[in-house]
Structures are given as C-alpha cells and as structure tokens.
Design a protein that fits this description.
The protein is an alpha/beta fold. Helix content is 42%, strand content 12%. β2 (117-122), α7 (127-142) and β3 form a beta-alpha-beta unit. The longest helix has 25 residues, at 402-426.
Amino acid sequence: MARKILTQHIEVPGIETIEVFRQHGGYSSLEKALRMNPDDVVEEVKKSGLRGRGGAGFPTGMKWSFIDKKSGNPRYLVCNADESEPGTFKDRWYMQKNPHGLVEGMIVSSFALGANTAYIYIRGELIFVAKILEKAIAEAYAAGFLGKNILGTGFDLDLYVQPGGGAYICGEETALIESLEGKRGNPRLKPPFPAIAGLYGCPTVVNNVETISAVPHIVNMGGDEYAKIGIGRSTGTKLISASGHINKPGVYEIELGLPVEEFLYSDEYCGGIWKGRQLKAVVAGGSSVPILPAHLITTTAKGEPRLMSYESLSDGGFATGTMLGSGGFIVYDETACIVRNLWNFTRFYHHESCGQCSPCREGTGWMEKVLHRIEHGHGKMSDIDLLVDVAKKIEGNTICPLGDAAAWPVGSAIRHFRAEFEYHVLHPDKISDPKHGEKNPLMLVSAPVTQ
C-alpha cells in the first residue's frame, strides 16, 4: 500500500469544510508552528529536504532562507496555482478536493517567512476552484486562523485569491509577480531574485501549491522524519497526474523512489497500457520535459531500474534521461504518432510565448510551422535538422524557461524517434489520414537511441 501524506484524508466526505478537515487533524500544524520560532520552522523545512513540486525541484528551505529580512520592507508569500501545462493537473485536483490543506500551508509558511499578506494566484480558467478556495479562506477567518492576532499570538495574516488572465507564462514566478501587480505577465531579468525584490519590490517567496501544502505535514512530523520518506535527495511524496494510453488515468500520490515500472503497470496506479497494446513512449514530467522511448522509461541506459525520483529520471542527462518536472506523466502506446503529438505541444508553446525574447517568439513559431508540414506530408529531410537547429538556438537563450520548455521536447523527440520523422517525409501517402498512427502504427516501438 502506498504511503499517503497529502491525500491521506482526501476522499473523506466533507473534507473540503473546515469542520471535517479539523476532525482529521487539520490546522494542528498551525497551532504547533505558532508556538515555535519562525526561523525554527524554516529549519524544519530545510531538514525535510522538500524540493519545489512545480517542476524546478529547488530545495524549498534554502529558497526560504534567501528572503531578505533586513530591508524592513513587507514580505510576501505567493502561491503559484497557475497550473496549465499539458498533462499536468494535480494541483487543480488537490485544491478542489482539499482546499484547507493549501490554506493551512499558506498560513504556516507565511508565519515562517514573516509575511503578513499572502496571495494564491490561480489560473483564470479555474474560477470554480477559486470559489472553493475563497469559501475555505472565509471559514479560516471565522475560526481565527486568518486576520489579526491569529490564535492570540500577535501574528497577523491576510490571504487573497487572485485569478490570472489565463497565460501559461504567468506560471513563471517573475511573470506571475508582474501579473499580480496588474501589469502584462512578462518575465523579469534575474537577478534580483524575488527573495530580494519581488512583489511591489519587496522580499517575496513564490511556491507551488503542492510544495506549500506539504509544509503542515513537515511541521507535524518534523523535518528529519519527513526526510526519511522517499529516496536520497528526493524526499517525501509527490502527486503525479497520469494520462494518455493507460487503463487508470488520474492523480496519484507516490513515495519518491517508486519504480517507474510499478507505477506504470500495477493496479494500484496506472494499471498498464490500455487495450493490451505495447508501450511506445512516456513524457514523465509534463510537456516541457524530454520524451523517453519505452526501453528507457523503465530502465536507465546503465540497465538499472528507473525510479520516480529527480535523480533517477534524469540519469544519463538528456541523451537517455528526462526530468520529474511537474509530475505530468503522459503515456503513449504503439499507435501514437510522435510527430503529431510534438506538433500539438509546439502549437501550445508558440501560442503561449509572451513574445518578449526573439528566440522564443520566432523560434516557437518556426518549430510549429515545420512540424505542421512534416505531419501533413509536405516535409523535407532537411526540415528534421532544421528543427534541431532551431531548438538549439532557443535553448538557454531566453529570459525565462519557457524557451527551454518548448525546445527540449523537440530535441528529444528527434533524438529518440528520428526514423519516424523520416517516415513522414518519405511516405506522405501513408500519413494523409489524421489517424495514421492508429491505422498504420508508425513502427519504432523500440527505437534505437541516437546521440
């Protein structure tokens, strides 16, 4: 049986209400944290080894320790709930199911950081989730967990929900801050980092929903105990949103270090590939990470079992590995057309580029155009290398990581499935039907790796 921390009570009827949430231990971490020194709460988070669950995987406690406490300016905590990457939907699910889990995490984290104002910046399309959060926040105010002099300790905190305009780029922390200030959501140059000059020029920490929601559990069990869960530097549990050609799509909480093969094929999780087909490829961490072919997703290039952890998934670098990312686990069976799926990803990134950097603004457009003509039978062999060249020119040459997010899937898809791109160029008659993958499986269930 898998270990549950965030989702232990998530299926309890009425857990979205403060009454039922408290019956199952909710807000106990707040009472404990308020009896501690704020710096000691930060130390517990450091000890836990918790890493940002939004995709970057940066140590949370270390990020908190960077916040400027000497400036005398107000400090802010901002929750990044602008989840919108294709294949990633675990934060929306968690907030909808267990809103007080996030609210409690916001209060405890704000106390640790010395923030008296906090925001949950949520994607605009998720307005129904925003209303659920606002109801939970109102209940927390009524219970004395928010507002002035919380539980008689002298700590004040106001918490607001701010819906965004529906731009993927606003999931990048500095673009999010710009948007929260009422401006166009363009990323800022760093440094200065938000911990020094963030919201309204003041020290700010931006953390993901899942990251903040883990904090109450760390306070309750202690950082050392939390660090015992997981494997190596991948401590704790992780929410994974699994989708695609599997028997049981959904959101699962896993203990980091779980073998990928067990996650993919066991009845407790994905339940195997649907219709008894063969596995072709997996995007393990959301659409922004490199795709891996079947023979590299369950086993590393060194022949070791691939684990659901930051280190194991990245083993071999981008030549044979990928990233845990945001935990968006997208599965393709043998009938999937890699070119068509890559074209869809590229359409998304071209549409969502803020246009601030030329490599991203122009490059994502070129990648979409070239992939469109390859997928629709008008491509040339030189187009494949052109895609690789454009992706390399975007990677590492933009203000924010959106450029990398657009480039990495292109480079990896061609690295592992180049023959499928060539097939599209050489056999335009066989790919004229949009469902050509399903009707005429495009080989390469076990494509050779080229580096």
